[in-house]
């Protein structure tokens, strides 16, 4: 399983990745500032809750970058085909190269990928034989981070004790409700989308 660096030049993919990174930054900055740190100072939560959130956030962004730059299984220009496997190879009618069966040609990347599942604009890369497990990691960590964020948003209003002091001169706390509603909306959208994608990926692997 190779782990060569693979970089795709695709403006649409860059925009999609930029949106994902913006959502990640938004929640990584505002959730601790609005919920975790104030409630920790007043003794409503422990430091473990803060550390868990940052660990989940770190794993999520790390898996995003790993999946986006990992080689998905790009076929070389002159592949060496073992004589015993000639029957398992076929000619691609788009790039005129020999490829093993179950490989597909990606029009965005411009080459064939072994066991290509799909081209994902959110990671600006194909999902293929060599980075499929990294894509599943990304889906898994994103579900955990989104769920954790939604739980914190809910607990802040319906479970935690009200904060005794707030710095109302700071922009963040004056717009706390709007910021957390945006966070909850983004978390819900991402959780639903990623959970459905993760389920279909697992079903595809099992079947």
TrEMBL record:
It is a multi-pass membrane protein. Residues 88-206 form the Palmitoyltransferase DHHC domain. Its EC number is 2.3.1.225. One of its GO terms (biological process) is protein targeting to membrane. Pfam families: DHHC. Keywords: Acyltransferase, Membrane, Transferase, Transmembrane, Transmembrane helix. GO terms for cellular component: endoplasmic reticulum; Golgi apparatus; membrane. It catalyses: L-cysteinyl-[protein] + hexadecanoyl-CoA = S-hexadecanoyl-L-cysteinyl-[protein] + CoA. GO terms for molecular function: protein-cysteine S-palmitoyltransferase activity. It is found in: Membrane. The chain crosses the membrane at residues 12-31, 43-65, 138-159, 179-199. Belongs to the DHHC palmitoyltransferase family. The DHHC domain is required for palmitoyltransferase activity. This is Palmitoyltransferase. The gene is Zdhhc21.
């Amino acid at each position: 399983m190779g782990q060569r660096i693979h970089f795709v030049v695709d403006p649409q993919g860059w925009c999609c990745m930029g949106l994902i990174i913006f959502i990640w930054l938004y929640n990584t900055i505002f959730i601790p500032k609005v919920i975790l740190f104030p409630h920790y100072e007043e003794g409503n939560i422990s430091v473990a809750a803060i550390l868990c959130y940052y660990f989940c956030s770190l794993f999520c962004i790390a898996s995003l970058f790993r999946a986006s730059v990992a080689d998905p299984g790009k076929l070389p220009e002159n592949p060496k085909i073992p004589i015993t496997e000639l029957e398992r190879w076929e000619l691609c009618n788009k790039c005129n190269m020999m490829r093993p069966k179950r490989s597909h040609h990606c029009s965005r990347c411009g080459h064939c990928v072994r066991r290509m599942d799909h081209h994902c604009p959110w990671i600006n890369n194909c999902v293929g034989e060599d980075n499929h497990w990294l894509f599943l990691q990304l889906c898994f960590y994103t579900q955990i981070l989104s769920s954790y964020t939604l739980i914190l948003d809910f607990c802040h209003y319906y479970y935690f004790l009200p904060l005794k002091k707030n710095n109302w001169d700071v922009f963040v706390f004056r717009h706390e409700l709007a910021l957390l509603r945006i966070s909850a909306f983004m978390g819900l959208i991402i959780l639903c989308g990623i959970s459905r994608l993760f389920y279909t990926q697992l079903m595809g692997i099992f079947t």
